[in-house]
Amino acid sequence: MSASPRIAVMGAAGRMGRTLVAAAEQQADARLAAGIVAEGSSLVGADLGELAGLGKLGVVATTSLEKVADEFDVLIDFTNPATTLANLAFCAAHDKRIVIGTTGLDDAQLAELDGFRDRVAMVFAPNMSVGVNLTLNLLKTAAAALGDEGYDIEVIEAHHRHKVDAPSGTALKMGDVVAESLGRTLKEHGVFAREGQCGPRSEKEIGFATVRAGDIVGEHTVMFATEGERIEITHKASSRMTFARGAVRAARWVAEREAGRYDMQDVLGLN
Ligand SMILES: NC(=O)C1=CN([C@@H]2O[C@H](COP(=O)(O)OP(=O)(O)OC[C@H]3O[C@@H](n4cnc5c(N)ncnc54)[C@H](OP(=O)(O)O)[C@@H]3O)[C@@H](O)[C@H]2O)C=CC1
Ligand SMILES: O=C(O)C1=N[C@H](C(=O)O)C[C@H](O)C1
């Protein structure tokens, strides 16, 4: 495959879709080849550059991957779980690579996604920003040093009012990384809601709190708190471009890979 993969953006009219179009267009070593919008959308035929606020690019929105199957090498998909799984099946059948940013997959959907690992080269990560992926490594270090020393661990996240899944995929990943460092699991130790007479906190639980408000792009804090001190590791995204640039970087990286399930830590060499 060429070093400059042809990129198709699924959900090209969405918040991330429009940003991905701009990122693919602006970054060297990637070419925007196609954009797909939902069936029945009034934006079918619209110029992707105009949707992204860049002016005409000469690539128009279409409604199906079949129509552009010969025009792209890597699909970037930030949509919803059902759409993403259907697109994975398409990529497996048509020898395409895929970068998946979609969050909110349940256990059955995650198992289905994983079932494609031998047939599709995919990068799947709940957060494509370099900062968050570096933060995951800081969390491993912090958890290993503090977790068994009586520090309570809480994950707090805030996002815009339109977000449909909670906690965010990034918050779950952060919780997972911390839990794994401590030999715990979120299935056993994750606490996702507290209300009423819920009793005092248990020692090993990992709590999650969610804020949904206004236009917050994405903020995550992991708190390690004990009597006398509190450590907070925080990442704040102020522009979706940080996720989009990471996704285009992942597309360039996965274009050269064999079938397998990779994440942004692989792309960034942080593993
Ligand atoms: N990994 C990461 O770094 C990040 C991940 N995300 C995740 O990305 C996902 C999308 O977020 P966001 O952009 O804010 O959401 P949006 O709702 O703005 O965008 C999703 C887009 O997908 C479109 N879509 C849905 N189904 C189809 C389909 N079958 N064919 C074509 N297009 C379709 C929607 O169209 P319509 O509205 O017409 O249905 C919409 O335009 C979420 O899961 C979010 O959590 C977000 C930011 C960063
Ligand atoms: O929906 C969003 O906007 C975001 N979703 C991702 C998640 O669920 O972690 C990543 C980012 O924080 C923005």
TrEMBL record:
Positions bound to (S)-2,3,4,5-tetrahydrodipicolinate: H160, G169, T170
PROSITE patterns with a match to the protein in the record: DAPB (PS01298)
Cellular compartment(s): Cytoplasm
Top-rank taxon, per record: Bacteria
Positions of NAD(+) binding: G11, A12, A13, G14, R15, M16, G101, T102, T103, A125, P126, N127, M128
Keywords in alphabetical order: Amino-acid biosynthesis, Cytoplasm, Diaminopimelate biosynthesis, Lysine biosynthesis, NAD, NADP, Oxidoreductase
InterPro entries to which the protein is assigned, alphabetical: DapB_C (IPR022663), DapB_N (IPR000846), DapB_N_CS (IPR022664), DHDPR_bac (IPR023940), NAD(P)-bd_dom_sf (IPR036291)
Catalytic residues (positions): H159 (proton donor/acceptor), K163 (proton donor)
Residue stretches making up the Dihydrodipicolinate reductase N-terminal domain: 6-128
Record EC number: 1.17.1.8
Pathway: Amino-acid biosynthesis; L-lysine biosynthesis via DAP pathway; (S)-tetrahydrodipicolinate from L-aspartate: step 4/4
CDD domains tied to this protein: DHDPR_N
Domain Dihydrodipicolinate reductase C-terminal: from-to ranges: 131-268
Pfam family for this entry, one: DapB_N
Catalytic activity: (S)-2,3,4,5-tetrahydrodipicolinate + NADP(+) + H2O = (2S,4S)-4-hydroxy-2,3,4,5-tetrahydrodipicolinate + NADPH + H(+); (S)-2,3,4,5-tetrahydrodipicolinate + NAD(+) + H2O = (2S,4S)-4-hydroxy-2,3,4,5-tetrahydrodipicolinate + NADH + H(+)
Broad class of the protein's primary localization: cytoplasm
HAMAP family: DapB
Function: Catalyzes the conversion of 4-hydroxy-tetrahydrodipicolinate (HTPA) to tetrahydrodipicolinate.
Subunit structure: Homotetramer.
Similarity section: Belongs to the DapB family.
Protein name listed in UniProt: 4-hydroxy-tetrahydrodipicolinate reductase
UniProt source species: Modicisalibacter zincidurans
